[in-house]
């Protein structure tokens, strides 16, 4: 069953030759027929791109009409001209669809330090407005329009019934292991035809991102452009507001879509051979668990060990040990690929060859670390570190 | 001029077949004729090895007589038996040289999770005690006895005149890019025949390590065994205490020896093609500068860019941006290999091919980032990230 747009949304993706190759789409547009509640979560990087500055000022909002996104040029480190260009993109869309400039949000991804080719982009916006449609093909084109080093478009949806209304949450994103100058930029758009209040939408998105896009790491870089936007237009329920239980179900659906998309980014790590899931249990609180999981995920030693199918528990434990979280080493337990390697603070005998073969034969590797300090847990996803990954990253030239 | 031991010190390095290859030395011993003031700085990793536990309890001290070190087995994650074995090593040395057990310090490096082969080690300690000598060859043997993946022994000295006394500071260390299970362990021993008070020695060592071993990063891992020990036996000045100026000169000499050794570790990064020096200037305080420098040094994206001779200023700036230190992006200035790439918050035109060729042709690459917030600066050293490095790390099997 193809993934569809929620009610009241249209989408388009076109090529406006930013990337040079006319077969590659490089501009995406999403329009909602009725003004939508909008929330945004953005990069924490101090060096942030012009579209991030614009969107930060315009979200949360109760009257967003469109999101325009381009790939190929990130509009980052571009000074005042960059801000003017980002605003101009939203202005062009607003004029075409009969909205105000500040009802349009903007995303960019691609080369840093280059100015947007505005003549091409304005032509692209006009073409996208003319092509807007409600089909799953239109959604797919929009997803493709945001791609840079992605090898596949990433789309996910959840359909649910909330107080008698058939509701849809549809998301798409771009992001893959960083190759070239795009800094592993992650752009995500989540659309729903449920109705949400402004603070509710912002909170739900923050929570969803905390459990999804914030729990993945390909190389530990936070890009200048990272953004996730949520639009809720209420088209499936004529703006009726939902009760507590229905709201909770909706928020979980938004989170599930974000988790799907985040894992799809990890799976699309170019030059990688394994996706690694790291679950840390038995912590005092979620922050501790996330900190340990993130430290393991960012360790090049752990990542190269998995690439080499090496059940090297020492590297995993050592990373946990320098995470800055205090725990009792004598209570530590570690499983790799379902096999117990370390228990009660000491290594246990295991068949290293068998574990290695099991890692080598699987795309997904699970690390489960329990530290015995409490009940909190967290999960993190990353990729292995292969020679191919380094080759791709080293051979790219600015 | 060969590097010599300071007065009153003897050293030896022997093979006791821990590593299997009898040509590889794997046990080192340093003995001081007279009890020495001793200071220690140890790993911050929560998972720390047995010898670290023992030495932490025995330093600072005013009566250390010897340091015994083995390579091949790290005696980490070895529980109670590991502590017993580490203590036993110090006991054997103490008996042989006529000292008390707690006057001996112990270091180990190598495989994690394996028990020390105590029969071999006790034989090795006996052999080392019989071989102790004062020559530069004896010093070199001791340095070799600590090596694991190091391709060269690392030794440095400073000779200085303090209030009419000829004083020597001699240091040696092991450490290289982590290959295998040794977790990039860094062991360092600094010896001086100057006299120092106990708190003075500890402070001087902490400061020296802060500006040297704490400013290098090969893969961001803090090992379970990292230790730096300082012995000051006063043999060159019959325990006379020094005035303020002479003390300062001595402390700078200790720091200089540590810096030499730290840089030697970076230069010995197996599978690397570039040493990278990162200088961050214009910060509010040294901590901020170190934090930015460390974040850049630990970025796989920066490290692969240098491996590929790519003047990718975007990756460097982005790493600075997510370091957590607040600065004004519009005042940032970046030089790579002496060439200005970014100034006043914007990229400047440069000949990318020429910069790339310059990086490719040099072993050392300098990154200088100025952030315009104050006068504090810090320097950090790391290596590039090459396919060869990943291959070595992935192919190693526990």
How would you describe this protein?
The structure is a homodimer of 398-residue chains. The model of chain A is unreliable at 179-183 (pLDDT under 50). The first copy, chain A, is built from eleven helices and 15 strands. Chain A has 398 residues and is of the alpha+beta class. In chain A, helix 1 packs across helix 2, helix 5 packs parallel to helix 6 (244-267) and helix 7 (286-297) packs across helix 9. Chain A has helices at 50-58, 79-97, 118-131, 136-145, 198-210, 244-267, 286-297, 300-307, 313-321, 352-360, 387-395; strands spanning 9-14, 27-42, 61-73, 104-111, 154-162, 165-174, 187-192, 216-217, 227-232, 275-283, 333-336, 339-343, 346-347, 364-370, 376-383. Chain A folds into two domains: 9-267, L-amino peptidase D-ALA esterase/amidase, CATH 3.60.70.12; 275-395, ArgJ beta chain, C-terminal domain (Ubiquitin-like (UB roll), Roll). In chain A, strands 1, 2, 3, 4, 5, 6, 7 and 9 form an eight-stranded mixed sheet that branches. Chain A has a seven-stranded mixed sheet with strand order 8-15-10-14-11-12-13, with helices on both faces.
Short summary:
The structure is a homodimer of 398-residue chains. The longest helix of chain A is centred in the middle third of the chain and has 24 residues, at 244-267.
């Amino acid at each position: 069953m193809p993934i569809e747009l929620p009610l009241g949304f249209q989408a388009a993706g076109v090529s406006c030759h930013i990337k040079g190759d006319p077969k590659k789409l490089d501009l995406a547009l999403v329009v909602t027929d009725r003004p939508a509640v909008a929330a945004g979560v953005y990069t924490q990087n101090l060096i942030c791109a012009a579209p991030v500055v614009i969107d930060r000022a315009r979200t949360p909002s109760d009257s967003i009409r469109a999101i325009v996104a381009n790939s190929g040029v990130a509009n980052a480190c571009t000074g005042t001209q960059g801000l003017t260009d980002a605003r101009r993109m939203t202005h062009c869309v607003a004029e075409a669809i009969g909205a105000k400039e500040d009802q349009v949000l903007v995303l960019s991804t691609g080369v840093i330090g280059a100015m947007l080719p505005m003549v091409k982009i304005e032509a692209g916006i006009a073409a996208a407005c003319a092509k807007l449609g409600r089909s799953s093909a239109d959604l797919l084109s929009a997803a493709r329009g945001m791609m840079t080093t992605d090898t596949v478009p990433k789309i996910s949806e959840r359909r649910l019934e909330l107080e008698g209304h058939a509701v849809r949450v549809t998301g798409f994103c771009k992001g893959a292991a960083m190759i070239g100058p795009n800094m592993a930029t992650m752009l995500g758009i989540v659309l729903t035809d449920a109705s949400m209040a402004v603070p509710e939408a912002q909170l739900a998105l923050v929570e969803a991102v905390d459990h999804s896009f914030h729990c993945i790491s390909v190389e530990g870089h936070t890009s200048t452009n990272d953004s996730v936007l949520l639009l809720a237009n209420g088209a499936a329920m004529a703006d009726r507001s939902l009760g507590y239980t229905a709201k909770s179900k909706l928020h979980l659906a938004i989170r599930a879509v974000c988790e799907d998309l985040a894992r799809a980014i990890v799976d699309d790590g170019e030059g990688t051979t394994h996706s690694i899931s790291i679950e840390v249990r038995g912590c005092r609180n979620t922050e501790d668990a996330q900190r340990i999981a993130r430290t393991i995920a960012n360790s090049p030693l752990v990542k190269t060990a998995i690439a080499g199918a090496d059940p090297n528990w020492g590297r995993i434990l050592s990373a946990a040990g320098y995470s800055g979280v205090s725990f009792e080493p004598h209570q530590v337990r570690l499983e790799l690929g379902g096999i117990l390697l370390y228990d009660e603070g000491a290594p246990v005998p295991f068949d290293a060859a068998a574990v290695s073969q099991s890692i080598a034969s699987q795309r997904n590797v699970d690390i489960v670390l329990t530290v015995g300090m409490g009940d909190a847990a967290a999960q993190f996803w990353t990729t292995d570190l292969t020679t191919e990954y380094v080759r791709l990253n080293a051979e790219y030239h600015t």
